[in-house]
Every structure is written in structure tokens, then in C-alpha cells.
Input
Amino acid sequence: MRCVVAIGSILMSAAAIAAHGSNAEESLPLQPARQISIDTDEGTWLSPDISPDGGTLVFELLGDLFTVDTRGGSAHALTTGMAFDSQPVFSPTVMTSPSSVTGPAPRTSGSSGPTARVPGN
Output
């Protein structure tokens, strides 16, 4: 019983110290410590989707979203940066990414996340 009381006392003290030390007005500084350049021509777990008109393929690679013409060519980045964007899905007029953190955007019926316009559509 003493052990339970001692552990409870320690946990309550730690919670009080943590609550006192935090400031709700301070923001979390997300500054990249370094940049790494990656040049690749293959990937796995890409979560690809094809546009309704069959002209564009969207996929994720290393936490960023890319589009490429279905006839081939170079991929073009839709998202870059520290956010991890994944699982893009086309709808009839826009592309949605459930994990996108680009901020408020209009949603389409049945959309599960913020939307981003697909170039050329």
C-alpha cells in the first residue's frame, strides 16, 4: 500500500511541475535541423491514384505528394516540407489527402480531409 501511495505522490508532483512549466502561448518551433537531397527513380508503398479523366497519376513518396502524366514524364511535387502527406485520393473535381496539414480548404461531399487543386483540372 505504501508503494502505491508513493508512486501516486510522485506522479502527481511530476504532473504539477509539467503543468506549471508549460506556457500555452508558446508555439512549438518546427525548424529543420538539416536538409537532405534524395534523387530516386523508384519507391514502395506509393498509394497511387489515377484521376477520373485518366490523364494524371498522383502518389506519395517520402511524405510528399507528386503528380505525373499517365503517359510518362517527370513527376511534379504537389506538397513539400516537414509535414508528412500521404494517401492522396482523387474525387471528380479535386484531390484530397487525409493527412494534409495545409490548412483550411473547401471539402467535397464525402471528403475525409483538406483539399488541394490538381494542376490542369
User: Anything to note?
Assistant: The helical segments are 2-21. Confidence is low (pLDDT under 50) at residues 100-121. The longest strand covers residues 56-61. Residues 45-102+109-121 form one domain.
